[in-house]
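Entry for the shared binder. Reason: the reviewer on the internal report wants the predicted structure included alongside the sequence.
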Amino acid sequence: MSRPRPLAGRRVVDLSTWIAGGYCTKLLADAGADVVKVESGEGDPLRRWSASGARIEAPDSGALFNFLHARKTTLVADVDTLEQHLSGADAVVWSRDATLPVIPAELMERHPGLRMVAITPFGLDGPWADRAATEFTLQAWSGGMIGLGRGYADRAPVYVGGQIGEWLAGVFAAVGLLASLRRGGDTGELLDVSMLEAEATCLTYYPVSYHDQMGRPMRKRRFVPSPGVAEAADGMVGLGVGTGQQWYDFCAMVGHPEWTEDPKLFLDRTSLMPTIDAWIAEQKVDELLELATAFRIPNAPLVNGANAESVEHFRSRGAFVPNPIDGVTNPAPPYRLTPAASESGAPRPMRAGGTLPLRGLRVLDMTAFWAGPFVGSVLGMLGAEVVHLESAGRPDGARLIGGIPQTTEQFWERGPIFSALNTNKLSLTIDLSQPRGLELLKQFVATCDVVVENFTPRVLDQLGLSYEVLRESRPDLVMLRMPGFGLDGPWRDVAAFAFVIEDASGMTWLTGYPDRLPIEPYCVGDPNAGLHALTALLVALAHRDQTGEGSLVEAAMVDAALNVAAEQVIEHSAYGALLERTGNRGPLAAPQNVYQAAGPDDDGHDDSWVAIAVATDEQWLALRQALGDPQWAREPQLATAAGRRAAHDLLDEQLGAWCRARSADDVVAALWPAGVPVAKVMQPHQQPDLPQVAERGFFEVLDHPVVGSCRYSTLPIRFSAITEPLQRRHAPLLGEHNEQLLAELGLSRSDIEELAAAGIIGNAVTPVSGH
């Protein structure tokens, strides 16, 4: 069956280089857009790129380049002939290192109807706009290198492998452009995408809102989750034990129910790890995963470039496909869109009022925790009316993150993660376990354009809430389903958390030190899934605008993760190379590492670090001069990237000693003005302290009636046509809008009071006894 092409007729010119812009336009091309990649004669440097160092000679292009550009037209042009390619284009995607010397503002002056997407490390303006950076140093500035405390306490903080910031910026760019196109009209718009802010959004877990509300960081010291990644008898596995119920189930699974009698062991399992490791070491991977699934413990094998294609679940779902250019194995597109043919379907373009592009769209948000609510969060910031559905008996689990004692008044309103993820939303509570509740839900769906859900597939099956059933209420409904592993396949009903998705996709494999087990990034799997689901949803809405037809959209979390980890499978298929984790070194720069600086961190600990990455020979010369041109740095072999890579141990030794004698601020002050990519390894909650972030207004302040005033992150995109705040209303109180929303369905006040008396709706959570 051919894929729908909702963006057919849209013309996009790709002037970008490297991954972010290429992935943005790949997502558009997969949805049917006519994408023209325009390069100078020297071409995008990604054409000659292989992470494993495979030699690629012209006229061939590297396998990663082919993955990103297979469905595009590629053209060579100069500045003078570029204009003809821009005639009739809807949008242009540009990055700072574009091979053609284009200035976005000047291009828009000549073509005022264009949507111009600019992807840069820090954004187009602000005090850091022209500073040197690599994806590695951006992770340090963003707080993402520490993230949720990732890493071993006796080692330097470790970055998330695989150029993840490039991929994330690319998906954000696609989401922003699709939203802008939906606004319609002939007026162009500049979309200014900051990779720093993309990483701050996706490599940390709302640390600023958490800090503002709780008065402390979520976690400052590094740790590795337990059991986390473990070595079984015939391979590595990932086991997630993050909730109280999962801990009880895990203890029963390993035959030690007595561990649950000591509450301290749930928080610190260090003393138990030898016993846990020994038990896991005796199990075979397949048997262990089957057992963990039976106990509802989130689980996955550790996937990498060599074994991904052999995973039965991926084979059964067709997760990988051959590239039409070179036959190399590629991840399939990250979502499935199935239009629902309608007898009365007719185009119904929706145009937003005001400056927010999604105003006028109503979304029922049947999601919980992070990936699903993140979809509604972005939709709400861009103007959609988003109604978050919970029940008083089973609230969104994010309300309970933060360790608020259940003896605290309105404890369910004090969860900082819920507050950060659900701004701009309304709250509706309905108990779907009761028949009347199901009737109410179906009535409400009739008023909605979109339904989003992220339960395991069996949940909606048991409730009888299939897409076909909900379409009876709203024939042109777009339903976005976000299962962890998909709606079919052997892992269909496996519970999915971010870390499990990271394990199953290869993200975990590339993160950590080569002499230790991989480290789960422990964050990016969720927002990455949300971003790809948003892309799919906006594509489905474009289809409905054109045809009047709704769609079922399946955006499995693992499919999104496989796409941003694509390089591993591609390198193995094309060149037989297994990419491995290398600590803080990487293929793009040498030297590249995290070095300890002098002086205490903000807590008085000897734990202050800087990240340095030299990506070009020019940057090496700049580093030499900034260091005072020491004798050791004058060795001729160090003038080339290959020579520096071969001498990396020596460079680490010398740079480590130089940094250790200076504070982190002094290291940055000495190197950055000289043009060397460098960064302090920031604590995540310090994001607003960065002058660049403050200048761009990435955080906005809202007042919450229970927890008070907090700062909330917005989007890593500045839309020139948006003149309103993105954060306009605090996260809703539980059931706050029940009366308002149910009255729309024709229910009287007495009807609503009867529903409350029957426990079908409610606005208070009953504390849970026991565990």
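Summary line for the report: The chain is about 35% helix and 15% strand.
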